[in-house]
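Section 5: illustrative case.
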């Protein structure tokens, strides 16, 4: 089943930052789309819940240099 969640990500200060985070998430199997907003820090992720989960989102985002809040 498809789900949408919103993560709060610290450290995105420009458009390239948004793209980096979006691409890191898009690369994960099961992610259908990601939209980052540097103004709020919110990253909306649409994904297949049986394929991928929050831990992987966090890992992928931290790997490209940003911090995920709670
Ligand atoms: Mo430009 Mo966004 O260095 O970090 S990619 S501000």
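Designed sequence:
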């Amino acid at each position: 089943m498809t789900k949408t969640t919103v993560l709060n990500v610290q450290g995105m200060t420009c458009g390239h930052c948004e793209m980096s985070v979006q691409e890191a998430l898009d690369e994960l199997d099961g992610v259908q789309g990601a939209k980052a907003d540097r103004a709020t820090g919110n990253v909306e992720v649409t994904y297949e819940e049986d394929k991928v989960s929050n831990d992987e989102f966090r890992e992928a985002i931290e790997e490209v240099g940003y911090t995920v809040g709670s």
